[in-house]
Design goal:
- The chain has 582 residues and is an alpha/beta fold.
- The protein has an 8-stranded mixed β-sheet with strand order 2-3-4-5-7-9-12-13.
- 32% of the residues lie in helices and 9% in strands.
- It has helices spanning 9-16, 71-84, 125-139, 211-229, 283-286, 302-311, 318-323, 337-344, 370-374, 388-397, 448-455, 457-462, 466-478, 487-501, 505-517, 526-543, 545-552, 571-578, and strands at 41-43, 93-95, 105-110, 113-118, 147-149, 194-199, 238-240, 245-247, 258-261, 266-268, 316-317, 329-330, 400-401, 410-411, 418-419.
Length: 582
């Protein structure tokens, strides 16, 4: 696969086919952003319910610890706080060659771009505030080209080859397992049976102690989500490579311009099992609109996808995320990240990504200059060329994108729709699709999440609330009507019911209503959903008896919740959680 940074006509065509998650006026790229974080190692399928550093017996080695704090960085921060109104929390973000000791985030130079490192899977509220401020500045800086976040969280010194090295400096490299320098097809960390816990947002055990602390933490998470998403002034794409597990508040990373999912990437919502609802990351907006951005088949089952992901504790893998549009691309080999970074370093700054030159302006006497020349040109004649090189690099380095485009696709000469060698518009719809020998498993690119939602599509989409859905699923799981039921359907219904029963009934009903209020309608925007999630989660942290019981139980599920099932939850208590506060 080519790693060249030049733009070919075919790759440009594939890049132009992508949507843009941002409302930015730049080239049609999916979302403005960059990021991916790997930190604490935990066993597979056992996501930490407590502080993410609990499994670290030793303080990880971090580069730059041997160097004193960088005086220029301190002076720059002082001036930013004094002269430009920057929050004091920017001191919690290590920049340049500054030491990352006792810090959770580091930002290092990468040519005209920046490499971001998340050194802890749970961030404090102040760290989220400082990171959001930095991202807002970086994404509007025309002197940059890209932002990349892809690290295992223990070393922020070797940006190009970190994924190929051991997690600790004193441990020797095992080349039988990890890739040597230059290899791109061998496995990289984590080892089999383990996974990186990339990001969970905040630690609910320690950061929601009081209503004031909970409000501040959630407000900063809301700000970080908005910063990752970007606004109308954003120019620089943010690229995330989450080579591990994301949970709850970690969904903010899915708002990046590009999300490159790997075979280790997973996403799971655990908050209802803690007595909480959705974090302010926009999930009530995105989950009810899955598949729409890239016109995917999953858009027809968005209601079911939202309920399964948000309420049952379902663990979505990389193919689930790509086929629902929550991730933009599938990265077959994480060892290709150094190649991506090396090529990103060669991309010129956004300001200089130009091909056309503006016409000369003349004054009233026919001479160059004058008032006409001083007038700034309102239209950017090079807008369609900016960020194209970054898009092409990502298309070259990944296996396929969320809109179904892969290296085997070519545009139809008449309709320009992507056509594949086997005649299918989207290989993910063909269970027998074999990418010319590159994939041997019949379920390659198959999303079990979408199939799950499609199986119960009408029931999940048309039911008025989760109480009705659970009742119907319970009858199907027990075959109460004594009718002929497919064994696969009965097994899926049983899984759904067990997922609902494992969570707090109050949190389940509140989350269900939060999703329904975020359903597509003209009055609903991403910001309105973020604000509602912030309000509801702040109330749940302060008023939910199930969350308090969960905290008192040390982060373990209690033997019984406040209410025995979802049908027993009082309506007035749900409305109290959802009622606007002024």
């Amino acid at each position: 696969r080519s790693s060249s940074s030049s733009s070919s006509s075919s790759s440009k065509g594939r890049a132009l086919a992508l949507g843009h998650r941002n409302n930015c006026h730049q080239h049609h790229h999916r979302r403005q952003g960059a990021a991916s974080f790997f930190s604490t190692i935990v066993p597979n399928s056992q996501y930490p319910e407590t502080n993410s550093t609990a499994n670290n017996n030793e303080a990880p080695y971090r580069p730059f610890d041997d160097f004193p704090d960088n005086p220029p960085a301190r002076w720059a921060r002082r001036n930013a706080i004094r002269d430009h109104g920057a929050p004091k929390s920017i001191a919690l973000i290590a920049t340049g060659t500054e030491s990352a000791k006792n810090k959770s985030v580091a930002i290092r130079d990468m040519g005209c771009g920046r490499r971001l490192f998340l050194l802890d899977s749970h961030l404090s509220g102040d760290t989220m505030e400082g990171l959001a401020y930095r991202l807002n500045l970086l994404k509007t800086n025309a002197q940059l080209s890209s932002l990349l976040l892809a690290t295992d969280g223990t070393d922020d010194s070797d940006t190009a080859l970190r994924l190929l090295h051991e997690r600790h400096a004193e441990t020797s490299v095992d080349y039988d397992y990890r890739s040597p320098q230059g290899a791109t097809d061998d496995e990289v960390p984590p080892q089999p049976g383990q996974t990186f816990y990339v990001c969970g947002g905040y630690d609910p055990l320690t950061q929601l102690d009081t209503p004031e602390m909970a409000g501040a933490t959630l407000q900063h998470l809301h700000g970080l989500s908005a910063a990752i998403r970007g606004g109308t002034e954003s120019k620089i794409p943010l690229i995330t490579v989450p080579h591990g597990a994301l949970t709850d508040g970690g969904a903010a990373l899915l708002l990046s311009s590009y999300v490159l999912a790997t075979h280790e990437t997973s996403f799971r919502i655990l908050n209802p099992r803690r007595g909480l609802s959705l974090d302010p990351t926009g999930l009530s907006y995105w989950l009810t609109r899955v598949g729409q951005e890239f016109d995917q088949p999953s858009q027809h089952y968005a209601a079911g996808v939202a309920l399964i992901l948000a309420l049952t504790g379902y663990t979505a893998n990389a193919h689930d995320l790509v086929e629902t549009g929550l991730a933009t691309h599938y990265l077959g080999s994480p060892a290709n990240v150094p190649i991506l970074e090396e090529n990103l370093m060669e991309v010129p700054a956004w300001k200089y990504q130009e091909i056309l030159r503006p016409n000369k302006q003349y004054d009233g006497h026919g001479q160059p200059g004058g008032g006409h020349q001083q007038r700034r040109q309102r239209r950017d004649i090079n807008a369609s060329f900016r960020n194209v090189q970054v898009a092409n690099l990502i298309m070259d380095i990944t296996e396929y994108s969320a809109d179904g485009i892969d290296i085997m696709s070519v545009p139809d000469s008449v309709t320009q729709d992507p056509i594949y060698y086997d005649g299918f518009l989207d290989p993910s719809l063909d269970a027998e699709f074999d990418n010319d020998g590159l994939a041997t498993e019949p379920e390659w690119r198959t999303s079990h999440l979408v199939n799950y939602a499609a199986t119960f599509g009408p029931l999940l989409a048309q039911s008025p609330n989760i109480v009705h859905v659970y009742g119907e699923m319970k009858e199907l799981a027990n075959n109460a009507k004594r009718v002929k039921v497919e064994p696969e359907d009965q097994a899926l219904a049983q899984l759904f019911c067990r997922g609902i029963e494992a969570a707090s009934p109050l949190a389940t009903v509140v989350t269900d209503q939060l999703l329904r209020r975020g359903n597509p309608r003209p009055s609903e925007t991403l910001e309105s959903c973020l604000q509602r999630e912030l309000m509801v989660q702040t109330k749940m942290a302060a008023l939910s008896p199930d969350f308090q019981t969960w905290r008192e139980n040390g982060g373990q599920a209690p033997k019984r919740w406040c209410y025995p099932d979802v049908a027993s939850v009082p309506r007035d208590q749900v409305e109290e959680m959802l009622a606007p506060t002024f």
